[in-house]
Specification:
This protein is of the alpha+beta class. It contains three helices and seven strands; from the N terminus they run E-E-H-E-E-E-E-E-H-H. The protein is globular.
Length: 162
């Protein structure tokens, strides 16, 4: 029996995908949104862009990261691409190739769609990342972002309000 570098299970309302990060075509990095890529069998994980989390490392020593996660066949660039999970770990720098990660899909941001080109795709990814940041703050995961964004609070420190 062949063992796939993939497993899926429902945990409450969350879908978890465990896999080994593999090299992709490095397009995410070129666009300014590097991703951890995990191949997923067709029709097992719903297509779309998700707010999620990624655990890196062995059990009991895992680090947690907030991520914008795309699952799909990348229709902007491929007419018949293979299904791939691409997780953009927000505010993360490092090399994940060959590491096992656990990706939890927590909230669907939008369905997958084809864009007219790279510029339109980048604009949408920027919006997706902003929505994931907002989701993380609302979900109490702001401490797992590199920069906790609370603009009104930081502006009011030291200021007197009438």
């Amino acid at each position: 029996m062949q063992t796939l570098p993939f497993s899926q299970r429902q945990d409450g309302d969350f879908l978890k995908v465990t896999g080994v990060v593999d090299h992709g075509d490095h397009r995410g990095r070129l666009l300014g949104f590097p991703t951890a890529n995990i191949a997923v069998p067709e029709e097992t994980v719903p297509k779309g862009v998700w707010a999620g989390t990624v655990h890196i490392g062995p059990l009991f020593r895992r680090s947690l990261h907030v991520a914008a996660v795309s699952v799909g066949d990348r229709p902007t660039y491929y007419s018949h691409g293979h299904r791939l999970l691409e997780a953009n770990l927000l505010d993360f720098t490092g090399d994940l190739y060959g590491k096992t990660v656990v990706v939890t899909l927590r909230s669907l941001i939008r369905p997958q769609r084809k864009f007219s080109g790279t510029d339109e795709l980048v604009d949408q990814i920027q919006d997706d990342v902003a929505q994931v940041r907002k989701w993380a703050l609302e979900a109490g995961l702001g401490g797992f972002l590199g920069e906790v964004q609370e603009p009104e609070l930081s502006k009011s420190i030291g200021e007197r309000r009438p």
